[in-house]
Structures are given as structure tokens and as C-alpha cells.
């Protein structure tokens, strides 16, 4: 079995702000019992519910804000959203009510949680960092996977283990009308 990501994402930074040493509070993240994606699902139920049937109205926005605060209090260590955080959350909720898309509300909830943990994010997109490679199988195969590898090497590991490299060579030779021994003799 081989497991690897095609790219890294997020760009997590430990510590937040310009002052060194950078304080960060991992306990804040350890206390989180629901992902922001799951919170988004809970908020979807509110957005699709009775209070939001008339579209972008104050009742719907208020229900989403209350639900957001309740989710943070129940499933994270964020028991109160600060006055500085409220405007951004309200802005994203207003957009979500109009577009019916809660993505940016989910992101904003992540910002609120990250603020408490004092972690930052350089991007929500791809980053150029190395990704982990996990291999499980015969010891020879696992040894091939150890260490840091160029991404194209992962393909070679898999092809070699599955015996595909020889097969590719055979296909190339056949394509060139060169006779080949279909089943090589094992030594």
C-alpha cells in the first residue's frame, strides 16, 4: 500500500504576529471536537431551514450568527467571539445568505479558532512543501520508500514493485517490431 498527497496545502505557521518568541497554544486545537467542515454542514441545516426560507433577511443572518457562536462554544474552546471578529463573521454570513454558499463562513470560523491557538495560515491553496509518503508491505518495498524522494520516484517505486517497468519495456520493443521474450526467465 502506498499513500501520498499530490501536494501540500495550508501553509500552517506556528505562532502568530511579529514578536519573537512566537507563542502558540496547541491545546486550543486539541480541544476542538468538530471540524469547520462539519460545522458548515450544521449551518447548512440552518440556511435550508425555516428561518432562511425568505432569502437574505436579518432573521436568517441572526440565526446563522447565533448558530455559529453556539457551534464554536460547544465544539471548540471558543466560548465568546470577540468584538474584532464579529464584523468579519457577519460579513461572511451576509454573503452566504445571498449566495447560499457557506464556504467563507467556514473559513472565518477557522480564523476564529486559529486566532485562539495563535496559528496562522499562509494560504488555503497549494504550497510547495514536501509531503509525507507512507508505505506498507514487504520489508524490501518499505525500505524503498524510506526518506525523502522526488515525486516521480514514487511512480518508479510502485511500477517496480508491481513489475510494470519490465512490461513497459516490452511494449516499447513490440511497438518497434522487435521480438521479445514474453515471460522472462526468473533467476
Average pLDDT metric: 85
Domain module tally: 2
Number of helices: 8
Q: Please outline the major beta sheet.
A: 2 strands, antiparallel
Q: By helix and strand content, what is the structural category?
A: mainly alpha
**Basic shape:** elongated
Task: Describe what this molecule looks like in 3D.
This protein has two domains: 1-9 and 130-187, no CATH class; 25-117, no CATH class. The chain is built from eight helices and six strands, in the order E-E-E-H-H-H-H-H-E-E-E-H-H-H. Helix 2 (36-47) packs antiparallel against helix 3, helix 3 (58-75) crosses helix 4 (86-99) and helix 4 runs antiparallel to helix 5. 51% of the residues lie in helices and 9% in strands. It has helices at 26-30, 36-47, 58-75, 86-99, 103-117, 139-145, 151-162, 164-175, and strands at 2-4, 8-9, 12-14, 119-121, 126-127, 133-135. Strands 1-6 form a two-stranded antiparallel ribbon. The protein has a two-stranded antiparallel sheet with strand order 2-5. The longest helix has 18 residues, at 58-75. The mean pLDDT is 85. It is mainly α. It is an enzyme of class 3 (hydrolase). Zn(2+) binds at residue 126. InterPro entries: Alkaline_phosphatase, Alkaline_phosphatase_core_sf.
Quickly describe the structure:
This is alkaline phosphatase. The protein is mainly α and 187 residues long.
Key structural traits:
metal ion binding; EC 3.1.3.1; two-stranded antiparallel sheet; metal-binding; Alkaline_phosphatase; 187 residues
